[in-house]
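WARN  no MSA supplied for this record, continuing single-sequence
INFO  ligand: zinc ion
INFO  echoing inputs
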Amino acid sequence: MKAARIHEYNKHVVLEDIPIPDIQPDEILVNVKACGMCRSDVQLVDGYFRPYADIPPPITIGHEIVGVVHKIGSTVPKSAGFEEGDHVVVVPGWGDGTCRHCQIGDTQICPNVRWPGFGKVGGFAEFVPVPARYLIKVDRQLKFEELAPLTDAGVTPYRGIKKLLNARALGPNRVMAVFGVGGLGLYAVQYAKILGCGAKVVAVARNPEKLAIAKEYGADHIISTRGKSAADVAVELKDATGQPDLDAIIDCTGAGAMIQLAFSLLSISGQYADVGLVGDRIDIPLFPRVSREQVLHGSFWGNYTDISEVLTLMAEGKIRHTLKIFSFDQINEQLDLLRTGNIVGRAVMKFR
Ligand SMILES: [Zn+2]
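INFO  complex generated
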């Protein structure tokens, strides 16, 4: 089968032919139809994660995976309801099933978690073996290329916004901002309107072209940060919404400058959730965060339930996608474009 693998960090991935992987009795072999490309694929190639998990090559990249059931392992129960030919979405974040996080469904923060796309098996390959309990069967009418990003780009901000909602940071007379409107942020804007309970939604980013799409997707206001100080942004925010600060922020960038801007604009008892990983440090003043009782939420990817929820929203036609479709042989070219921020929306590889 075709597979795109890292053989050496900081080099182009190698597009090659390798044997189709075997499956364990509790696994299903999925014939991959589409796989989204994530900034973390670029970061994996560039060695960003090596201080945290130094995965030995070869690594098959790709973790936003959808496909068709090709072969079912011998111990997969009939009650799971899978048949060959079913269309399935792969829930990433394969937990050990025994720890307290797995027991409540948060397998993506299991201390023994395994990820497709960060080891031997991944989605930029024609076949991937997946534990049956991490597959969700979907309607055959739904498009593979639209399903793929919902396993990361289209679920990660959803979980983050749910954290803000459950912490009661959202509601009428609140202002919520989405920082960054790339692959994740364009979904975040839509979820902010769906889950915001009437909060005004402001998209804050550098790129006017991406901000225009955010406006089209329901942002009440857009603010470009290009060439502006934090004070300039606060003035623009007040003109747009009537208040110079933000009650809730979902930060889809994680870039150092954006984090500083976010905390400088955060209201008393404001809440911030970060899901972007562009930078690798948070450097914010301590006293205002304590004295203003501001909350910083960690939110990582999404679990089976989160993904089921966004799939339902999609099936109901409530989610819009900005996609760039590419083919398997264009993987390196697309990684290079993503590295320099030159992708609008989500790039998705489709097998013909
Ligand atoms: Zn676990």
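The radius of gyration is 20 Å.
INFO  checksum written, moving to next record
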